[in-house]
């Protein structure tokens, strides 16, 4: 509120100062000349007539004559000796050079005074102070009306711009309330309302993300949980009728696998659902990226028959990064686990870096992913029907979760053909510390 008031107050104050300064500068000289002409025309007749009349009389009679003329002129015309006026010497020169000489505010009352030097003496006839001409009053009135018009125009422009922004905010709020969760304000302004609109857009994006996550979780619960629960129900039914110990043990083993699958699914669902909460409550850490990545890769070298290779091109160019280690570890673990799951013999992990980006490439020598299917890999709960299917394990959240985490860091995950024959997943991260900004802005997934 204070910022809004000050901006309007300074706008009006600055506009008033500029207007009156400019108008005074443009009109002062013109008005002075006009006022001098106006006063000269009014005073010339009375001054010259009185001066000729006095010239025909003795100087010692002039005070009495001026006293008798006061009934006609009142205080408008007076006779003064030069020393009484206390004027500078250059004005005395002007009085000798000009019949009528105009000065401003030489008496107690403000206004212009016309002066005439009685020939051959130091007596000066003073006519005035003269009232402001009506044209000046009209001019002042015109300036005031002009200022009011300019002020009104400025206020209309300012209010209209404010109205448009408030209307955009109102329309977006109404649309959002009616269920249009893609509604955004999009105010291109860095001022108070611009920040308010950006806050609304951020809130709308976060809510849209949360609602999308909720829909995906509902889809997962209705689809992904149905199959193992059905198998558990069938196994329980057959377990009640099984007579052979071997048959009962086989059914128990199947049930245990289904329970393990359900636990894994629930864990994946919770991690996917809680990603937004983690990014809001966890502070980023600045880490030396290469040693951190090497320690992350090390546990994946055991427990399988694939060869895992880790390399870094130009390691001296890999800077420290500001990340959420827990989340980024989850993203890279998902990519490495997927590669090990689908590789025939080999998985290669490599790091490249430029001035503004760091890229982690995870390659496998498996069957690869067709170009037309690569976008679907990042859809939650999608498992391709070819060699990368449910039989390989997983619930279809690994790549989707990795991409969401990368985007929370201002990066991304992409798919390409691997140099060793299979699929290449590349996780890119910015080298600048932009994580906090992206957390504040949110990212559509």
Automatic annotation (TrEMBL):
Where exactly are the transmembrane stretches of this chain?
Answer: 145-163
**GO molecular function ontology, one term from the record:** phosphorelay sensor kinase activity
User: What SMART domains does the record point to?
Assistant: HAMP, HATPase_c, HisKA
Q: What is its EC number?
A: 2.7.13.3
PROSITE patterns attached here?
A: HAMP (PS50885), HIS_KIN (PS50109)
Sorted UniProt keywords: ATP-binding, Cell membrane, Kinase, Membrane, Nucleotide-binding, Phosphoprotein, Transferase, Transmembrane, Transmembrane helix
Cell compartment(s), UniProt: Cell membrane
Judged by the first EC level, this protein's enzyme class is transferase
- Protein's UniProt keywords contain Kinase: yes
User: What is this protein called in UniProt?
Assistant: histidine kinase
Tell me the organism. Answer: Sulfidibacter corallicola
Q: What is the lineage of its organism?
A: Bacteria, Pseudomonadati, Acidobacteriota, Holophagae, Acanthopleuribacterales
């Amino acid at each position: 509120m204070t910022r809004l008031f000050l901006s309007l107050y300074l706008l009006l104050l600055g506009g008033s100062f500029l207007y009156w300064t400019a108008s005074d500068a443009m009109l002062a000289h013109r008005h002075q000349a006009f006022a001098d002409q106006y006063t000269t025309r009014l005073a010339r007749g009375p001054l010259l007539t009185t001066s000729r009349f006095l010239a025909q009389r003795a100087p010692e009679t002039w005070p009495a004559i001026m006293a008798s003329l006061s009934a006609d002129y009142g205080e408008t015309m007076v006779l003064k000796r030069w020393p009484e006026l206390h004027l500078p010497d250059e004005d005395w020169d002007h009085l000798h050079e000009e019949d009528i000489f105009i000065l401003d505010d030489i008496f107690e009352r403000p206004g212009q005074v016309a002066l005439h030097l009685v020939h051959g003496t130091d007596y000066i006839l003073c006519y005035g102070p003269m009232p402001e001409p009506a044209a000046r009053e009209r001019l002042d009135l015109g300036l005031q009306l002009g200022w009011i018009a300019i002020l009104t125009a400025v206020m209309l422009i300012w209010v209209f711009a404010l109205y448009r922004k408030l209307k955009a905010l109102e329309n977006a709020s109404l649309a959002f309330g009616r269920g249009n969760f893609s509604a955004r304000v999009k105010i291109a302004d860095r001022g108070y309302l611009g920040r308010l609109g950006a806050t609304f857009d951020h809130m709308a994006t976060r809510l849209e993300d949360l609602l999308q996550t909720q829909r995906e979780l509902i889809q997962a619960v209705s689809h992904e949980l149905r199959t193992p629960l059905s198998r558990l129900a069938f196994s329980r039914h057959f377990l009640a009728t099984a007579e052979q110990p071997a048959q009962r043990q086989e059914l128990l083993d199947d049930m245990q696998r289904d329970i393990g699958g359900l636990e894994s699914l629930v864990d994946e669902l919770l991690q996917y659902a809680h990603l937004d909460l983690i990014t809001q409550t966890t502070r980023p850490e600045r880490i030396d990226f290469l040693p951190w990545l090497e320690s992350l890769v090390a546990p994946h070298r055991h427990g399988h028959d694939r060869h895992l290779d880790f390399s870094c091109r130009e390691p001296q160019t890999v800077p420290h990064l500001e990340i959420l280690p827990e989340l980024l570890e989850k993203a890279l673990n998902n990519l490495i686990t997927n590669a090990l799951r689908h590789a025939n013999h080999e998985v290669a992990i490599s790091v490249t870096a430029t001035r503004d980006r760091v890229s982690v490439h995870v390659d496998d020598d498996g069957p690869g992913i067709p170009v037309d299917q690569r976008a679907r890999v990042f859809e939650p709960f999608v498992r391709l029907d070819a060699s990368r299917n449910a039989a390989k394990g997983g619930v279809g959240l690994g790549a989707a979760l990795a991409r969401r985490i990368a985007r929370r860091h201002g990066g991304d995950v992409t798919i390409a053909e691997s140099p060793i024959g299979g699929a290449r997943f590349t996780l890119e991260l910015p080298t600048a510390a932009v994580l906090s900004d992206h957390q504040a802005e949110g990212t559509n997934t």
